[in-house]
Fold:
Amino acid sequence: REMKYEKQIKLLKLFNEKSAKLEKLHILKNVRKIGFSVTTRYKVNGRTDKAKRYGPNSKSIDAFALTIRFFIRDQDGISINEIDKIYQSLPLSEHLQKKIVYIKSKVKQYLSAPTNYTLDQYTFTRLDAFEIILYGSLAHAKSSDKRRQQYEAIENNTLVYEVIYNSFVHTLLFLMKTIKTIKGLNNISLELP
Structure:
């Protein structure tokens, strides 16, 4: 089995290696220890008076976000979107294959859910919020990039920024739980004869 499915086995091992790297980062310790919340207060004229964020610091989020890209972009062969193709190409039980398809569908459902931010009659999804912070601020921050332009449009509006950022952090945590689940399924798959 090892030789016939060498490429797929390498990809499952790479997925697990990157997952283990995420698990070691400080963001999860920070969230477990401190939690995560945003508090915003307003003046009478509607302008934001004060915003406080409790949770992981930007350094831990940066490191986490740069590693999590392996699981969300379809270019390294181990994204959540691609993992079911690996499973389908291996001689695995129908149960494992259905489980991975189910997980992928839950991720799509989660990411397509709306945030509490609407602009020009478009309600941003969790995926929009995630990509605005990830690609607009943390990675690929080219001024011509759509997500960079969206980030620049919100970065000085404290309320909108906090709504988008809050969604971003919750999406990171959701993705981490999903990645850990897939890592467990990969371990089962790698143990099969």
Summary: The beta strands are 37-42, 48-54, 114-119, 122-125. The longest strand covers residues 48-54.
